[in-house]
Amino acid sequence: MKNDQLIKGLFAGILGGLVATAAKSWWEIKYPVRSEEAETPPVVLANKVKKSMGKDPVRDENKGLVSDAIHWTFGTSVGAAYGALAANNPAISSGLGLPFSLGFWTVTHGSTIPMLGLEPYPVNVRMDYAWNEFAGHLLYGVTLEVVRRTTLAVID
Questions:
Q1: Which residue, among 149, 155, 153, has the nearest Cα to 20 in the 3D structure?
Q2: Closest C-alpha to 33, from 110, 115, 141
Q3: Residue 108 CA to its chain's centroid (Å)
Q4: How many CA atoms lie within 13 A of 137 on its CB side?
Q5: Can you give the three-state secondary structure of 76-135, one letter per residue?
Q6: Burial class (CB in 10 A: 0-12, 13-18, 19+), 93
Q7: N or C: which end of the chain has fewer CB within 10 A?
Q8: What is the pTM for the complete model shown?
Q9: What's the sign of the alpha-carbon dihedral 84, 88, 90, 92?
């Protein structure tokens, strides 16, 4: 039944997204993607939204919470969508998640996030930061796919 597969895929994707976000978060602690002084894209986004509403920027003591909340929500949501799409289209999960990882990086940190002014383009930051961000997305995608497959194997 297609609906049953969709629900299982969604669940496996949510779990995969959580674990993959944890893996990428760990990666960024070990291999920084920006200087400690630089605002994270989620904080820059929150400040843009708050400014558009005539509100004060995010207070320093709340920046970590705001950044984590947006980062974890986004990472888990992407995992959910990936799991749901892969349930009825196995090509999405080909290559152990690496093709997805490349696309995910391309549409986020490789283009959209810089276009929105949330962070510089990869060619405009230190090379190690750019590579760390790229590699973190590869880790995210592979982790997402491994957890998704493992979860489906257990619940099927």
A1: 149
A2: 110
A3: 8
A4: 20
A5: HHHHHHHHHHHHHCHHHHHHHHHHHHHHHHHHCCCCHHHHCCCCCCHHHCCHHHHHHHHH
A6: buried
A7: N
A8: 0.94
A9: negative
Residues 6+ apart with CB under 8 A from 50: 56, 57, 58
Phi, psi (5° rounding) for residue 126? Answer: -55, 140
Helix axes 127-155, 98-107, angle to 10 degrees: 130
Residue whose entry in the numeric block shows the structure tokens 């995010």: 58
Chain position carrying tokens 């629900």: 7
The residue count for the chain: 156
Query: How many CB atoms are located within 10 Å of the residue 31 CB?
Result: 15
Q: How far is CA 84 from the centre of its chain?
A: 16
**Three-state SS at 8:** helix
- In the block, tokens 């749901």 appear at 84
Under the phi-then-psi rule, with left for phi > 0, alpha for psi from -120 to 50, and beta for the rest, what region is 97?
A: left
How many CA atoms lie within 13 Å of 14's alpha carbon, on the beta-carbon side? 5
Series of mean pLDDT values for 10-residue runs along the chain (156 residues): 87 98 98 96 97 97 97 98 95 95 97 97 97 98 98 94
